[in-house]
Amino acid sequence: MTSSSVEGARIPGGAAPTTAAVVTLEHVSKRFGPVGSPPAVTDLSLTIPAGEICVLVGPSGCGKTTTMKMINRLIEPTGGRITIDGEDVTSLPAVELRRRIGYVIQQVGLFPHLTVAENVAVVPRLLRWPEPRIRERVEELLELVRLDPAGYRDRYPAALSGGERQRVGVARALASDPPLMLMDEPFGAVDPILRDRLQNEFLRLQERVRKTIVFVTHDVDEAIKMADRIAILQRGGVLAQYDTPETILATPANEFVEHFVGADRGLKRLSLARVRDLPLGTPIIARLGEPRSELHGRLEAGGEDYALLVDGDERPIGWIGRGRMAAEGEVVAEDAIAGSPTLQPETTLRDALSTMLGSSVQIGVVVDDRDRALGVISVDAISDVLRGPAASRP
Amino acid sequence: MIEGQPFFQMDWVLAHLGLLAQRIGEHLLVTVIAVAAGFVISFGLALAVRRYPHIYAPILAISGILYAIPSIALFVLFIPITGLSLLTAEIALVSYTLVILVRNIVTGLRSVPAEVIEAARGMGYTNGQRLWRVELPIALPIIVAGLRIATVTTIGLVTIATLIGMGGLGYLIVNIGVQRRFPTATITGVVIVVLLSTIVDLGLQVFQRRLTPWARAQAG
Fold it and tell me: Per the CB < 8 Å rule, is B120 touching A97?
């Protein structure tokens, strides 16, 4: 098809490496009512560096979502100027501007009448990419968000779990390789454990794509975890502080910020460090089918009371106590005590601590993105961090 | 019924297959014109409601009043203006479809989840693209449900249009069957009307399932 190869040359951002944009807000304000009514956003100026995650956070009614929606002009500002890479957002028709900006919302908003592949292809189709290029891009994106294209391509959203829908939503927002993504409480509608997973996945993804991301949340912990920079807004869209999470936790600009980030600032600093920042413990590994006597011998030699049982794919099953290994026979899954929480390298120490304290076995097993055991981490290891200077480490 | 005649004469039916086919054709034509015209008008009204939501209540009220007028009265009302014509019949038939179709199209469009509309706006659909590619496809099951009710109702009403000389299956039931006291024609006409309604209803249902494979994924 000669025509498609000609068109191929016009694909925005097609063959180029992924790009990111600088976003600036200059004295932006918004009031919904007539002049004199209380403003939703007041004289807001921010510069968001390219490739960074900027989290807008604050109590409800602080204008964070309004601020985000002014960037893609779902809401028009009453005053001030917004630029993307130096270009005023009003220099383009609003629909064209929006096709260049990724958009993810809390309820995802997948189109129920389109398959996963068609949902992901929405913006490329609006941009009239040639079909072969769209197909290729859809495969690439589904793999990027870890959904097997063969298994998911032709499914309808109704047949997906909450986490899968969220991943398709992220793939859809990335489809045209936009330099900027807006995310409005993207992980707000899922349960805490899944949220942690999706956040970790997204951070891993961001390490690869390096987009500029404006991320709205009301959850300070999520802000601290996700942000390169946090903008804390107070009622009326007044910027209370705009800085890195470390600085905000260490030196809150005013009483409002101090109050908003909470009295447990010390504990919150645990959110700045991740499981991968700590040395992992290496337990004795037990495998299904090995003779019990042999495992008993290894435990004795190592001076350990418990071994971590893993399956053939190195995925953790549970802990086996030395006492049970005195019996004859081979190691079976029923020998193990389940209930040990699994953690990911990207999990923050705060989340890790809270998960471990809440489970029956207070040793966390750290797993990689295929659920293979990498090592273990204990509550003691985290409290060492709380005591030591490492707490302020990024 | 004329003395000595059997109640139902199959040989009459078999001898008049050509006449029956002609009446079915007339009946369907009048129905299709009414439903098509009613759909076009209702669609226009529903789009107006999508843009100006406050006009919905008055539109529903007016179409509700039209629906409440007995069909014979409506025919008679228009005879002085438009005569014993197809137009008279269609004016009455179309006005009955409006209340059903407007309500279903508007309900269908309003059933599109708010987050789907927000996502569509945020990704850069124009207003028209959003309507045709997102809102209408999602509204389709409810719109087709309205079409089914409107069509079945109209097939029944066309029978009455025979009173103003529109032919159709009403001609069999009333003109031949009742006036000439020939029950065979009445029974044949009624059976065909019922069959026709059922077939058209099923046909529309199949059509809707074909167009909305995603709705089944939802149920399953």
Answer: no
Asked if residue A169 lies in contact with residue A109, where contact means CB atoms within 8 angstroms, the answer is yes
| For B117, nearest residue in chain A (alpha carbons) | A109
Is the per-residue pLDDT at A5 higher than 70? no
Q: Which of A138-147, A378-387, B14-23 has the highest mean pLDDT?
A: A138-147
Mutate to test the interface with B, among A66, A71, A111 (most CBs of B within 10 A): A111
Question: How far away is chain A from the Cα of B110, in angstroms, using its nearest Cα?
Answer: 15
* Residues in A lying within 8 Å of B, measured between beta carbons: 72, 74, 95-100, 103, 105-115, 122-123, 126, 155-159, 172, 182
Task: Give the orientation angle of helix B183-211 with respect to helix B136-161, to 10 degrees.
Answer: 170
Per DSSP, the residues of B134-190 read IIHHHHHHHHHHHHHHHHHHHHHHHHHHGGGT--SHHIIIIIIIITTT-HHHHHHHH
A99/B138 Cβ within 8 A: no
**How far apart are the two ends of chain A, measured CA to CA in Å?**
51
Kindly determine whether residue A113 and residue B214, on different chains, have CB atoms separated by under 8 Å.
Answer: yes
Shortest distance, CA B138 to any CA of chain A (angstroms):
6
Helix (H, G, I), strand (E, B) or coil at A108: coil
Residue type, A22: V
The minimum CA-CA distance between A73 and chain B, rounded to whole Å, is 9
A241 in Cβ contact with A232 (< 8 Å): yes
**pLDDT of amino acid B13:** 82
**Are B37 and B94 in contact, with CB atoms under 8 Å apart?**
yes
Amino acid at A161: S
- Within 8 A by CB and 6+ apart from A35, the residues are none
The b/e string for B56-79 (b: 16+ C-beta within 10 A; e otherwise) is: beebbeebeebeeeebeebbeebe
pLDDT one-digit tens code per residue, A328-354: 888 888 888 887 888 988 888 888 888
Closest chain B residue to the Cα of A120, Cα to Cα: B123
ipTM here: 0.83
pTM of the model: 0.79
- Computed over every residue of chain A, the mean pLDDT equals 87
Percent with pLDDT over 70 in chain A:
94
